[in-house]
Amino acid sequence: MTEFTIASFNVKNLIGADQEYYRFEQYTPEEYAWKEAWLADQLLQMSSDIVCFQEIFDEAPLRAVIAECDAMGIEANAVTIPDGSKRYARKAIFRKLAYRPYTDAALAFAPNANDGGPGERRPGVAVLSRFGFVGDPQIIQDLPEPVDIPFSELDGSDAGSYRLTRLSRPILKVRVPVGNAVVTVFNCHLKSKLGELDKPAGAAFPPAADLVNYDPLGRAMGSLRAGLRRMAEAWVLRRAVVAELDKGRPVMVLGDFNDSEHAVSSEIITGETAFKNYAWMRRHNPEHRSDRYSDDENGIIQEKIAAVKLVSAEKLFVKKSLRDMVYTSAFGGVFESIDQILMSRHFQPDHADRIGEMDYFSVLNDHLTDGSHPEAPYNKLASDHGQIIAHMRLLQDDDPA
User: Fold this and answer.
1) Is pTM beyond 0.90 here?
2) What is the pLDDT of residue 376?
């Protein structure tokens, strides 16, 4: 039996000191030192075997965080882990307490194709794996063929289309060997809810960005554009997930979805939730009033939906325990989970052919504050996301696919 942990960590704008990432935004050397130390401490607490990072501008600062985490962990081991001469050294508790350095771990970084110069930087994503990778990591951002989304009026007439040629941030796909299995891991950071405001040609800024001359309709249209982009990106991710599932490969999807579990964009990624029974439903091509799906067809439909369905690790955990309140974001008085870990049925407890299960789900969110609260501290150095960790175990030894 192999145990492993997998986590998602939005680090909030990781970049070196004295580098302007967004306009007029940069860290002083002191601020960067504080941020690096805080991130290293969080990573130490997580101590996960696989970590999916979001908002990484450059690879070097991330490697510095990992190195500082290792230094702290090795120092902690020297103090807390007894050597072989102690009669109690073999107790299981010390195996749990021991920190495993990332010295031999593999790191894959996907820079953002939209990245620009100072003040116009755009972050990428990264995956850290103690188990290494099988094959080369793959980056999905510039699409070989555009995704065209046609629209039609209710009468069937043409209503235009939306075209997506590049994702706002890259999706990083890696295949990770765990025990004798290989798990396909996707790390994503979908388009945020920040509105895409219209900027006329030659204008210095979008008119709707001028809050003194507040334009509610222009800002609402910006939110519509952002939502459409986020859902289109979710479909691109879904397509990549289904391609892996069609090959019979176990899949886990992690990252910052910028939406809750029940949002449309999240449901696009996870797939449909099947009805209990389709035998009561009228067929798609009925020839008479009672022309419904048969019991055999219901079984076919159920299997086809289940085979490509992903389930939320958080949801599985909540079913097992109601002791913890799970949220990864706090803003505008709303505490919600927008960072997620999804997994294919290879890890679902009710699937007969599962290869593993989740034992526990944990979240580090004590550092989160609601910025809308008048007494909330201003803290741009810590992450504005909680870190989520799924504690997994494999049940059988499968040959790598």
Assistant:
1) no
2) 41
Q: pLDDT tens across 301-333, in order?
A: 999 999 999 988 877 776 655 444 566 665 555
Taking the C-alpha atoms of residue 101 and residue 49, their distance in angstroms, rounded to an integer, is 10
8 A C-beta contact, residue 141 and residue 169? yes
Give the residue among 192, 177, 282 at the shortest CA–CA distance from 229.
192
What type of residue is 341? I
Nearest-angstrom CA–CA distance, 288 and 277: 20
pLDDT in tens, 240-278: 999 999 999 999 999 999 988 888 999 999 999 899 899
What is the band of 372 on the pLDDT scale with cuts at 50, 70, 90? very low
Query: In angstroms, what CA-CA distances link 263 with 105, 231, 260, 266, 267?
Result: 35, 10, 5, 5, 6
State both tokens at 28: 């002083």
- CA atoms of 8 and 54, how far apart (whole Å): 8
DSSP letter, residue 118: T
C-alpha closest to that of 26 among 92, 112, 119, 106: 119
Domain boundaries, the chain: 2-191+220-270+320-394, 272-307
Mean pLDDT estimate for the chain? 89
Contact 355, 250 (CB under 8 A): yes
312: which strand partners?
342
Please state which of the ranges 91-100, 115-124, 371-380 shows the lowest mean pLDDT.
Answer: 371-380
Q: How far apart are CA 228 and CA 275, in angstroms?
A: 27
* CA distance to 112, 323, 330, per residue, from 368 (Å): 27, 19, 7
| 3-state percent breakdown (helix, strand, coil) of the chain, nearest 5 | 30, 30, 45
Q: Tell me: the pLDDT tens digits for 158-208?
A: 999 999 999 999 999 999 999 999 999 999 999 999 999 999 999 999 999
- CATH number for 2-191+220-270+320-394 (one of 2.60.34.10, 3.40.50.300, 3.60.10.10, 3.40.50.2300): it is 3.60.10.10
Residue type present at position 104 = D
Sign of CA dihedral 335, 338, 341, 345: positive
102, with CB counted inside 10 A (0-12, 13-18, 19+), is buried
